[in-house]
Design goal:
Blueprint (H helix, E strand, L loop, with lengths): L7 E5 L7 H11 L3 E6 L1 H14 L3 E5 L5 H15 L4 E4 L18 H27 L4 E7 L11 H22 L3 E8 L13 H11 L8 H12 L10 E4 L9
The structure holds nicotinamide-adenine-dinucleotide.
Amino acid sequence: MGIVQGKRALVVGVANDKSLAWQIAQTLAKEGAEVALTYQGEVLEKRVRPLAAQIDATVIGELDVTNDAQIESVFAALKEKWGGLDLLVHAVAFAERENLRDRFLTVSRENFARSMEISAYSLVALARAAEPLMEACGGGSIITLTYLGAVRAIPNYNMMGVAKAALEACVRYLSIDLGAKNIRVNALSAGPARTLSSSAIRDFHTMTHQVEERSPLRRGMKPEEVGTMAAAVLSDFSSGVTGQTIYVDVGFNIMGF
Ligand code: NAD
């Protein structure tokens, strides 16, 4: 018996085999969940389908989180397939490359709004769509992925730090709205990991290097540690935990120097 045995999980944010969402999807499947994946556009579909096949997951449809019709159709397909939903993983973020380097001050109104929409508002939109399906199961558990740059000024993280601060606030407010329906909402604050998205951050290697040198565990975070913590937080073992930002960063966030 796995810790999420028999649970039905939607994982949004797999782009390739380096994606943190992929670590989570693999662990959920290993721990007994049925997993559905989405993909953002045709190019990524070609990467997501073979990965889904590896863990016997369903590719439930295309999902660009800025597209309300796609959100509606993915959740309609889930309702048709499962009748309900127990777990939702939101692992989606976007900032223009030019806003992940140099001066935060230069971000345009348009880029600011787009980053906030994709990286923070999308959690609200997906949670709203998930609510009736989770209610049908007597409750549910939602997680999103965030980073320390939400609460500390990290050079170059810039626009994404502001979006992550909003995302963490969304987690707290959503947890109030959904708590009465036994739906929990939490954020995992992961340490730096090499992925498609993180490669856009200037001097990303400095972030990983600092963690390896200075964290209490004196090593980098292993991506699979995000998968195992996600399964733990999504599972009923964490039934008393909601509205939290939980650090999976080999302890780096506690350091003052
Ligand atoms: P990734 O590039 O593998 O995943 C990012 C995902 O966001 C992709 O699947 C992409 O398709 C999706 N996405 C972007 N815009 C979208 C849109 N409009 N609609 C639907 N999907 C969209 O990179 P990752 O590092 O695995 O990122 C996953 C999450 O983890 C992000 O929220 C990221 O900020 C967070 N995170 C990453 C790190 C890290 O160091 N990699 C650390 C902490 C938190």
